[in-house]
Design goal:
By secondary structure, this protein is α+β, with helices and mostly antiparallel strands. It contains eight helices and six strands; from the N terminus they run ααααββββββαααα.
């Protein structure tokens, strides 16, 4: 009788082990398939961006700067997709490439060309809104301008999105004043005054109802996105995203860590 019990125990243990092995193997296969799909999707956008960067030449300061930014996103997203080991990382590479395509659209519009078809929205872009009127403010001893259209005074484009937790509307600016926050991950002292003066009460922007409401909305959405990303990293990617994601910059802004091979190089 004891021998039968031992055999039964061994059979149960073997069955459990086989079930665990089978489940683990299926999970790894699904993860690999998800990564492959995400990489293919990202490469399609990256290659499309590459075709535009190679095929266009700026004719004025605004279009040249926008194409330079697009080229930067192409380089970054190409590097990101090669290093991607999770679907989330591939999605970030796609986000960088999409941002580059927004810069291409801006450059084409600045040169009086058809900007091309609509693109997928970037993270935080809709809530940030866009610049709908000309504004000029004094900030830290310099004059900063915002405009819905490019000009000699506003040659720097931003496609809209969250930068270090705050919504930055899409539009043309006299200088890329958001870049220090992209690099540092935080805004400098006095930046609240800049946001308030530039955007508060501006129709169509994330600050249409005032700076305080726009800022609160940006913080709430940033917190929600951060929680979702942490869930992805901890629950599904096994925490592997955390180190890789931290190496980039914003997507919205520079999403290097907010970026298409296999697509049509020539087509926009």
């Amino acid at each position: 009788m004891d021998g039968v019990v031992v055999v039964l125990i061994l059979l149960v243990v073997a069955a459990i082990g086989f079930a665990v092995y089978t489940s683990s193997k299926a999970s790894r296969r699904r993860t690999a398939e998800s990564l492959a799909d995400a990489k293919a999707d990202a490469r399609r956008i990256i290659e499309r961006l590459g075709g535009q960067v190679i095929g266009l030449t700026g004719t004025d300061e605004a279009s040249k700067q926008a194409l330079a930014d697009a080229s930067e996103r192409y380089t970054a997203s190409s590097s990101q997709i090669e290093q991607a080991t999770s679907a989330r990382q591939a999605e970030l590479a796609k986000e960088s490439a999409l941002e580059g395509l927004y810069y291409v659209r801006a450059a084409r519009a600045a040169m009086g060309m058809d900007p091309g078809p609509e693109l997928e929205s970037l993270s935080g872009q809709r809530s940030a809104g866009s610049v709908t009127e000309d504004r000029r403010v004094q900030f830290e001893g310099r004059e900063i301008e915002a405009s819905p259209t490019p000009s000699q005074h506003t040659p720097n484009y931003y496609p809209g999105g969250r930068v270090a937790g705050r919504p930055v509307p899409a539009g043309w600016y006299s200088e890329p004043w958001w870049k220090p926050a992209l690099v540092a991950g935080a805004w400098g002292i006095g930046s609240v005054l800049l946001f308030d003066a530039l955007f508060s009460g501006m129709h169509g922007s994330g600050y249409e109802q005032g700076f305080a409401q726009g800022y609160d909305q940006g913080m709430d959405q940033g917190a929600d996105q951060g929680m979702d990303q942490n869930m992805d990293q901890g629950g599904y990617d096994g925490g592997g995203d955390a180190g890789w994601d931290g190496g980039g910059s914003d997507g919205g802004g520079w999403d290097f860590g907010g970026g298409d091979f296999g697509g049509d190089f020539g087509g926009f």
